[in-house]
Design brief:
With 158 residues, the protein is α/β, with parallel strands linked by helices. It has two domains: 72 residues, Helix Hairpins (Orthogonal Bundle), CATH 1.10.287.180; 77 residues, Chitinase A, domain 3. The protein has three helices and seven strands. Helix 1 runs antiparallel to helix 2. Belongs to the GreA/GreB family. This is Transcription elongation factor GreA.
Length: 158
């Protein structure tokens, strides 16, 4: 079975979503299905079919989250000694060698990745180039627009 690396924040977000789905959505949908069933003929009852379909999607998401959490390895980067090396969970300040443009990314699990929030999947090309390198190193990344070199300015355990 594959283990999924996950930050503490990523695990917490999944646990919160799971709690919402099981404690709020599940009862709401059960009630909606019950009310729709009382409307009579189920063959032509759009409310009933819509509620059942949504219930199926919610139950599938619950199973998905439970599976992810059971197979996760939660890594608390704040409890790991700072060595200046890029590892899973670290926040990395990098600068484009050519343009001097600075960017900050946190290396996170696939489920947590959100480039707009600066959360970079550990399996992305940039993260794969950064992991294992240290502050001051220059890494080469193949991007859709060509090869880009980044200098690792700072690695933080936050």
């Amino acid at each position: 079975m594959n283990k999924y690396p996950m930050t503490v924040q990523g695990a917490r977000a999944l646990e919160e979503e799971l709690a919402h789905l099981t404690k709020v959505m599940r009862p709401q949908l059960s009630q909606a299905i019950g009310e729709a069933r009382e409307l009579g003929d189920l063959k032509e009852n759009a409310e009933y079919h819509a509620a059942r379909e949504q219930q199926g999607m919610v139950e599938a998401r619950i199973r998905d989250i439970e599976g992810r959490l059971q197979n996760s390895v939660v890594i608390d980067v704040t409890s790991i000694a700072h060595t200046g090396k890029v590892i899973f969970g670290t926040t990395v300040d990098i600068a484009n060698v050519e343009t001097d443009e600075a960017v900050t990314y946190q290396i996170v699990g696939d489920d947590e990745a959100d480039i707009k929030k600066g959360k970079l999947s550990v399996s992305s090309p940039i993260a794969r180039a950064l992991v294992g390198k240290e502050e001051g190193d220059v890494v080469t990344v193949k991007t859709p627009s060509g090869i880009v070199e980044y200098e690792i300015v700072e690695v933080r355990h936050v």
